[in-house]
Amino acid sequence: MIMNRRTLLASGAASVALATTARAFPAPPATMIGFDVMREGSKLGTHDLTFSAAGDTLTVNVAVDLAYDLGPVTVFRYTHRAVERWQGDQVVSLETQTDDDGDDYKVSGLRDASGLVVQATDLATYTAPASALPATHWNRNQLAGPWINTQNGKLLRPQVTDIGVETIAVADGRTLNARHYRMTGDAMLDIWYHDTMGWAGLSFVIDDTEIRYLRRV
Length: 217
Hints:
By secondary structure, this protein is mainly β. The chain has strands at 32-39, 42-54, 57-70, 73-87, 90-100, 103-112, 115-120, 123-127, 133-134, 147-148, 155-156, 159-169, 175-184, 189-194, 198-206, 209-216.
């Protein structure tokens, strides 16, 4: 999920096997990854991903719920739901729905002989490049190829810089070491991955204000 100025407020791994299956899915070892989304020390909401394997299929469910309040008034609300289905190392389908403060979006992707065919609100249907992955961030392999924006379906090609290993905070106040990557160009954000836990953090700036994801561990 990659967003414009408003929807950046919602911006959901090591390539290891899911513990409950013999297939080498590109999934983290945990069955859930969760973040508290913070703005200037206040919690905007949550971003959660769940992973389940059945036979040769891995299903990834993404749920984002954010609200920005000024006193008793909610001035901005965002919800996003996405379902990815994988077979081995390939995405075979993608379905998303987004309510961006009253603006609705849908994206669908279905793999056929030509590749992953993407359809989206206000976007011409296209077949994604073979290396393109949904921009749900949990899969570190996304750094190697184009991203499919899961809100609007657009294909993005951010430039990636490896900043190195850093110590970052997590939601319970502890810290962990994670590798920092900076995205520029089509997507402007910073993302961190832990060697075994996978996606560990994310941050970006809106109107000179940092939005930061704190991993719940």
